[in-house]
Design the sequence.
């Protein structure tokens, strides 16, 4: 058995990543390169938001007291968020400081990497000892499959496309790959969750994830980047400079009108 | 109380099932909550009727509207004591959409889902208007999260495809 507090912490870690990625994808709404992609990203964002909400609701029920999905999403600060660092990076790319134009290749390659990881994660979590989490995982798995198909199609089109699209997809892959290391590096909470049957052995996801990603890169005529020792720390609450801006925007309405309902 | 042993209670549950089951889907009103498999069960829990609904997609914006409509319909029919609860397991599947509902979707111009996502989401649908299998996908997402947008290459008409889930 895992203590309740740690159980909640693990669920929040699972929830924060789809919430933050959902917000990044929603920034494309009305700005997509073509109408179909505008729709696609808005709908993927909706699915991810829905997954995060289910996880927050589950965590809140377990935590009791005044915990609620809105309190988790809108009234926690940067150090309390446990999302992976990769997902808070601006759509314009790693080194852009968030000021440049959004980059569709970066958005798509990130979605491909995350969806492929999520697929492996949800598949295993659908057998979690926590029946509530297992139910959420079984739903999310169906959605992750479709998200991966979408992102894979575009990764191939970009990689195997023009010189310009190939260069941008390769640059996205090179800059994003080191941020995936965090996904497979277990810390004490991961170990505890895995040992109790609640969570997964996150290091074990790396093999199947790499097989998927290398196959996708090959089909897209992209070079899979060399291994890197870089390790981001978002899931421990130590974030880069971008998350604060993202939360400021996402939380402004709820914080200006804390009792508002809609 | 065991509803099976009490005909009046069993009849009450059947009435509730009929009321909630007949509510049209807010986004695809040609089919009902029963048709789509969103209404999972009606049972007696803790001495009162309990309606179990399941969401389609995690992020489906209609989920809350559906629960609110069920609540409203129950209140209007005098079942104020009935509760509505959302259940997630087993996860909703388009395999639960029955033959009758598939026909209704097709008549409405929406190609029904071929089979569940597990058996291959890439199986192309047949055109709901002319029946041709010569179709192409225009957009992976259509007018709602659960549909993709297609075009028939035979009759040239655009149509929605209810995606396997």
Sequence:
């Amino acid at each position: 058995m895992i203590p309740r507090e740690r159980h909640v912490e693990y669920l929040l870690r699972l929830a924060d990543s789809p919430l933050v990625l959902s917000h990044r994808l929603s920034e494309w709404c009305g700005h997509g390169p073509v109408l179909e992609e505008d729709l696609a990203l808005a709908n993927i964002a909706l699915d991810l938001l829905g997954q995060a909400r289910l996880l927050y609701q589950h965590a809140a029920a377990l935590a009791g007291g005044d915990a609620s999905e809105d309190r988790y999403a809108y009234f926690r600060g940067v150090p309390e968020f446990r999302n992976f660092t990769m997902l808070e990076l601006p759509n314009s790319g790693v080194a852009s400081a968030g000021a440049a134009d959004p980059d569709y290749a970066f958005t798509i390659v990130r979605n491909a990497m995350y969806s492929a990881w999520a697929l492996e994660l949800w598949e295993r979590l659908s057998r979690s000892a926590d029946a509530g989490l297992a139910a959420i995982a079984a739903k999310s798995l169906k959605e992750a499959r479709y998200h991966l198909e979408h992102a894979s199609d575009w990764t191939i089109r970009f990689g195997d496309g023009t010189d310009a699209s190939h260069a941008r997809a390769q640059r996205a892959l090179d800059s994003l790959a080191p941020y995936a290391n965090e996904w497979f590096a277990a810390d004490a909470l991961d170990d505890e969750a895995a040992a109790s049957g609640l969570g997964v052995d996150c290091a074990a996801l790396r093999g199947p994830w790499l097989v998927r990603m290398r196959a996708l890169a090959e089909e897209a005529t992209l070079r899979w980047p060399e291994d890197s020792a870089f390790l981001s720390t978002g899931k421990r609450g130590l974030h880069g400079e971008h998350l604060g801006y993202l939360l400021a925007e996402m939380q402004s309405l709820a914080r200006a009108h804390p009792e508002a309902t809609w | 109380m065991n509803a099976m042993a009490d005909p009046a209670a069993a009849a009450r549950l059947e009435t509730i099932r009929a009321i909630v089951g007949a509510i049209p889907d807010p986004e695809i009103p040609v089919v009902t909550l029963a048709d789509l498999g969103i209404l999972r069960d009606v049972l007696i829990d803790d001495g009162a009727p309990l309606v179990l609904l399941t969401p389609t997609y995690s992020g489906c914006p209609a989920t809350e509207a559906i629960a609110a409509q069920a609540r409203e319909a129950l209140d209007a029919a005098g079942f104020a004591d009935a509760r509505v609860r959302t259940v997630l397991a087993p996860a909703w599947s388009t395999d639960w959409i029955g033959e009758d509902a598939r026909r209704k979707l097709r008549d409405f111009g929406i190609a029904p889902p071929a089979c569940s996502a597990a058996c291959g989401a890439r199986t192309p649908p047949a055109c709901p208007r002319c029946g041709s299998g010569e179709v192409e996908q225009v957009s992976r997402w259509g007018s709602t999260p659960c549909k993709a947008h297609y075009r028939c290459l035979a009759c040239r008409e655009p149509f929605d495809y209810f995606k396997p889930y």
Summary: The two ends of chain B are 37 Å apart (CA to CA).
